[in-house]
Amino acid sequence: xxxxxxxxxxxxxxxxxxxxxxxxxxxxxxxxxxxxxxxxxxxxxxxxxxxxxxxxxxxxxxxxxxxxxxxxxxxxxxxxxxxxxxxxxxxxxxxxxxxxxxxxxxxxxxxxxxxxxxxxxxxxxxxxxxxxxxxxxxxxxxxxxxxxxxxxxxxxxxxxxxxxxxxxxxxxxxxxxxxxxxxxxxxxxxxxxxxxxxxxxxxxxxxxxxxxxxxxxxxxxxxxxxxxxxxxxxxxxxxxxxxxxxxxxxxxxxxxxxxxxxxxxxxxxxxxxxxxxxxxxxxxxxxxxxxxxxxxxxxxxxxxxxxxx
Length: 309
Ligand SMILES: O=C[C@H](O)COP(=O)(O)O
What we know:
The protein is α/β, with parallel strands linked by helices. It contains twelve helices and eight strands. Helix 5 links the parallel strand 2 (91-94) and strand 3.
């Protein structure tokens, strides 16, 4: 695709025509390709590297109403030194009021502080509140903002409303990176996942993210595949590279490695770094550490060897 994208968002009609004119997703084909890539086996040496790469891509997340400063501090300690000589994770992801705690705990480590904002997870509030939620998290020191799109507006065809919200939140981010959560489990069709991916990228997303982790299904392999195709095609069309973050329900080393195979086979190895691919997960890290230990020593250390996720 070499179309000029300059005027795509110049009017409601132009944006609608562009998004509705995107090629439809072959549903059966996407399911089959994702399933086929999920059966790829990898050699033991490659597996050890893949586990460390996956650890370095984790956005270690806690997004519970019961979160406390103590829990976030413990999570940050684990983010810095997950166990043994394992690498640090990419980021910790917390609610906005806990950003100062994470910033303090991670100072000087290079680990990013990500915060959900824009009335996560529903996004049901005014644009004014979404922008101020974002600005507060950024002024507290967040390096990355994970915003949710207005799925109601998207599903009722108000693409320009969604576009303008993303543009406004991106402006409030300043130097912070913006991840746009599509909440694919609420988008009904794979065509919508492709459209929402393009909409977010056109509006200035630095990353597109599958899910909040609060809705099922979340980061399924076909959905991640479609989003990886979108960032690949967007870079071909514009020269701009956008990252991808599957999040929600990624719990095992097998899940993580399947994701890395999807990246490699779909977007390509330019995306195989924490700058361009993240795994949003609250409880994946322990399994990665256990499998890492098993590969190194031939036995599991047992879950009590690691701190709890
Ligand atoms: O953004 C990340 C998600 O909230 C994590 O979801 P999870 O608890 O299913 O790993």
